[in-house]
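Ticket #4471: complex job returned nothing on first submit. Input attached below:
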Amino acid sequence: MKQKTFSRRLIGRVLAYLLAILIALWILIPIYFITVAAFSPKDVIYSWPKSLLPQTISLETLLFFINAQYVLDSLWNSVKVALLTLVISLVIGAPAGYALARYIFPGKDAFRIIILSTRAFPIVILSIPLAVTFMQWGLYDKLISVALLHVAMALPTTILVTSSVFIGVSKELEEAATVFGCNRVQAFTRVALPLALPGLAASAIFTFVLSWNEVFAATILTIQNRTLPARMFVQLAASPIPFRFAGGFFILVPAVVFMFFIRRYLFSLWGITLK
Amino acid sequence: MAEIQVKNVRKTFGKVKAVWDIDLTVHDREFVVLLGPSGCGKTTLLRCIAGLEQVDQGRIYIGQRDVTDLPPKQRQIAMVFQNYAVFPHLTVFENVAFGLRMQHKPKDEIKKRVQDAAELLHIEELLDRYPAQLSGGQRQRVAVARAIAVDALVLLMDEPLSNLDALLRLEMRAELKRLLQEIEATTLYVTHDQVEALSLGDRIAVMRSGQILQYDTPLNVYDKPADLFIGGFIGNPPMNFLDGEVRTEDGQVVVHTGGGDIYPPPDVGAMLSRLKEPSVLVGIRAENIETLPAPAEGALQAEVLVVEPLGSHNLITMQLGTEQVKVNTSADFKAQPGQTLWLRLNIDKICWIEKATGRAMYPD
Amino acid sequence: MNLKRFNWEPYLLLLPSILYLALFFAWPMVQSFGLAFRTDDGQLTLAHMQRMFNDVGFTKALRNTVMLIIAIVPLQFILALIMALLMMERLRGSNMLVYIYSIPLAISDLAAGIIWFSIFTERGYLNSFLYSLGVIDKPFLFLNYQTKWPLVAIVLAEVWRATSIVFVVLVAGLQSIPRDYVEAAEVFGAGWFARVWRVILPLLRPSIQTALILRTILAVQVFAVVSAIAGRGMTVLANEAYLWYREYRNPHLAATYAMFILTISLITAFIYLRALRTKEEMIL
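Support reply: We reran it on our side without changes. The output follows.
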């Protein structure tokens, strides 16, 4: 009897590991493929049948991509848009997050619910009316217009995440600071801010990745000044295959690297439920 | 140091009356404990004095200065928080120096005063460490050192020992007492732990539902509680309360309680005879009941229900008439459940409570 | 209310966010309505709506979008649930696993589309693999739009990319379930399946709700991944909105599509909220 339950447990354990590894492979193998493709020279990419293992490692394809017209420009555009988005959403969102974390006030729950429910609205639909508005304002085809829309996408999450970050910094610490000679602003800058910094940084990176990856709005709102994903999307059908692979790899890498830095905050960034 | 005066202070949170028209004076160099069950408003009162909450009405004075509308930093106070509130991003040294740095004291002075405070709290070795590397007890010491390092008029402490484990709490309690006697600080100390209150305070203010019920020395609060609630709240076990009927027999006042009669002394008798209703509660502490193995003059017959040996003494729960009483006996007193014993109440230690109002009565 | 004591600080802190969202979130929504239901000279009209419904692209786009949702969402949910439950088994290296499982969170739909294009394309990795196994002797045209294969590729790409978000929401939910409940169930004789079905899933309801709403809404607006894999051969609702705006220069029709996407999103969110209604007292 004992023997039987033991062996059943063991089988369960082994199955669990197998399954866990299988799923990990399912996620990793496609990433592996695109990496291999990006580091293969053109003739290997066009060859048939392709080897599943890397044959010749070369920078030819990646260099071809980077040296292509507009690529560096739009790469730089992407960085500018993402940085703008990040700064604006933190500057606007973090105070709101702080208010949600520190104060009890009438309307707080209503505000929270409104913020949460914005997630039920597809962002796609903001792009078209905003494109029309930005044209009137003379912001059309300017990077700031893409950033403004990306902020609208990111702001609710920024507010919720910064709020949980500030909740993580005990209110008592700020109170202690005021007792020992700080005013409210000093108490924030000397105590709450340094302690909240890692969480705020995670939130900022999250926003950066969101903006970096966004295609639809960026394509709608710009013509000349495109971000990298927007430029790639528009030219995709006309691009040679090595160009696509290198481009896909190029968008992928920073996202995966950033992910590594915010892995501690995964659940507070993406795990927010409606309750 | 200075005195604290709280005049007619009121603080509400929505419909909750956290502090309701409280007057309180803490004399210069006095150690006062605010004691009460959770939610009684003691912490709110402390936070109002610290300036962390704005009062709805009333005034607060620290050292004759009206501080009611001043922010905490201008009140010249120091505070020890319940969860220590030791800044995790600063070293112990910087934590202790925090208030001094905010006052822009010269470097040498900061160094000296941090050293002095650290020595008083025995944390000289820890000055370079970060709070994450400290135990709970050590963080507690840092929090206290930080509070005594600054020039404060008064020291406020909000349940400073409640997060320590039992043994450490005992140790820190004695040490706090030594320390505060040494620095002669005016201290207001909040706790829900009656033992802490009794052992530390010069005076205790017992609070309930936003009001102060009794403000007196520990001994008086213990021996002469102002009402039923305080008698039941303070002391372990809490005071026993027995129903009593007052009657007069041949000019002498007799109280019928616990299935027998007891005879209060004349001044008490006179007081009881003036009652409108002849019903009283006889409040008696476990240690003021003598347990006798045989019937005796004035002793009440009781049956043993539970015997709990506590090492230093035994706590016995007994059935006395229709009520239960808890009685302390010496550790070597043998008793079995079901056994009949006789109880003699120490008549001078009885706390007489008017049943209709719950107020305790003491002869003038 | 005592105005002097009234604390305005939180409202001041919220003000920038409220203004921003009003200007760049609420107002565009209202404007979408305007674009979708009014003519250029401001008359109310259903003409755009009619034109959309009669458009050839609309039926195809709607059918494809709905098929994608029906295929993707349940698959993702089941896979994510398995992944999340695996995390509860306290495997060695589970920190590593969590990181790997959540990598796709950071991958854009465009990149995911390109990655799966590299697998399914004519001389891609899948064909090479099948060839090396001897299953085929010449490349099979998976991405031929007359077959169902592009749809399969898109479903796989989306499941690959976006299961992570469901996973993370579910794990966050699982972490908030006190272990005591599960252990109590175990003590009282519940097997693994019973524990999952009778204890974990009911307690996980709010997270499941959130995950499903998020996922469905994201699936309704699926866009770049479709183009990257199937090119022009396949269309979806968001793609139509894009085309009407960018290629046919008709913001009205584009906005009408957008409103249609919004409507579907809100209806599905509403359905999930009703279907998975949580009794407050159940969630401690």
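Chain A has 13 helices and no strands. Closing as resolved unless it happens again.
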